[in-house]
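Task card 7
Instruction: Convert sequence to C-alpha cells.
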Amino acid sequence: MKQLEVQIMGQSYLLGCPDGGDSRLLEAVERVDTAMCKIRDGGKVRARDRIAVLAALNLAFDLADRGTTAPQAPAPAHSRSLQSEAANDQPPADNDVLLTSLLERLDVALGEDGRLI
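Output:
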C-alpha cells in the first residue's frame, strides 16, 4: 500500500492507497473537496468539522438516491472505526436503517447545539 498526499479544502492529508487505486482515491478526494468547498462558500457554516459532516451526509444522500453503492475509497485512519462499524456490504434495503443510525450517532457526537435534523 502506498500513500498519496492530497488537498481537501486547502489542507493536506496523507492517505493510504492500495496499489492501482490512485484514480479512484483522487476522484473521491475531488468529490469531497468540491462538496466541502460548496458548503463553506455558502457562508452559513465555518467550522471545518461541521462542513465535513454536512458534506459526508450530502454525499451519502446522493448515493442513496442513486440506489447503488459506490466503490469504497480508502479511508483516512481516523475514520476507519466509523467505516468498520457501518458495514459497507449492507443490502440496499438496509440503507435507511444505516443512514438513520449514522445520523443519530452524529447528533450525539455533535451535542445538542449541533443537531443536523
